[in-house]
Amino acid sequence: MLKISGLNGEQKIANHPDDNGQEFLSSKQGVRIAVALGSNLGDSQQILAAAIAQLSTVPKMQLIATSSWYRTKAVGPPQPDYINGCIIMQVDMTPQVLLETLLATEQQFGRVRQERWGPRSLDLDLLLYDQVILDIPNLQIPHPRMRERAFVLVPLAEIAPDWIEPVSGYKIKQLVKDVDCSDVHLLKSN
């Protein structure tokens, strides 16, 4: 069984695993989403800027806001520091189609999935999809670890401080106060 919550407490219970709430979610028009971006291979700032430009050309996706870039310590095995940031977009597509679009964009920029939390040319994580809570086998919204990650919360708080994370009920600017931000450093040139 799948429970999906949306704006104003709307809910749908899907009894068929293959439904994935598509009827409920596809009825939403022009929803606001948050995406985290990261890179630690190649010219990371150029890759991230190009990925944002690429996503901005996708039909039914409109860029609303871009955070500054931040240098952050990598999570996982020893590897170079990351450049991280976040974007807010307005989209007219279901979370599943959006996920497929993000994964295809990662591949266009040379993303190879070899080890969990390994180095990568481009990482795109869907953080928030309006106020939807979704848990299906290949996608969880909100992103299940976003509340623990300063490298996500710091740039997100810069561009969406009052967005309420629907699981905790807290605003992003409140969540960022609960994480150690000492390894997140603003880059001077964007």
TrEMBL record:
EC number: 2.7.6.3
PROSITE patterns: HPPK
EC primary class: transferase
Coiled-coil residues: none
Reaction(s) this enzyme catalyzes, per UniProt: 6-hydroxymethyl-7,8-dihydropterin + ATP = (7,8-dihydropterin-6-yl)methyl diphosphate + AMP + H(+)
Biological source species: Nostoc spongiaeforme FACHB-130
Region annotated Disordered, chain positions: 1-21
Keyword Hydrolase listed: no
Domain 7,8-dihydro-6-hydroxymethylpterin-pyrophosphokinase: from-to ranges: 116-127
Keyword terms: ATP-binding, Folate biosynthesis, Kinase, Nucleotide-binding, Transferase
Protein name per its UniProtKB record: 2-amino-4-hydroxy-6-hydroxymethyldihydropteridine diphosphokinase
Pathway linked to the protein: Cofactor biosynthesis; tetrahydrofolate biosynthesis; 2-amino-4-hydroxy-6-hydroxymethyl-7,8-dihydropteridine diphosphate from 7,8-dihydroneopterin triphosphate: step 4/4
GO molecular function list: 2-amino-4-hydroxy-6-hydroxymethyldihydropteridine diphosphokinase activity
Gene3D superfamilies recorded: 7,8-Dihydro-6-hydroxymethylpterin-pyrophosphokinase HPPK
Record bears the keyword Kinase: yes
Stretch forming the signal peptide: none
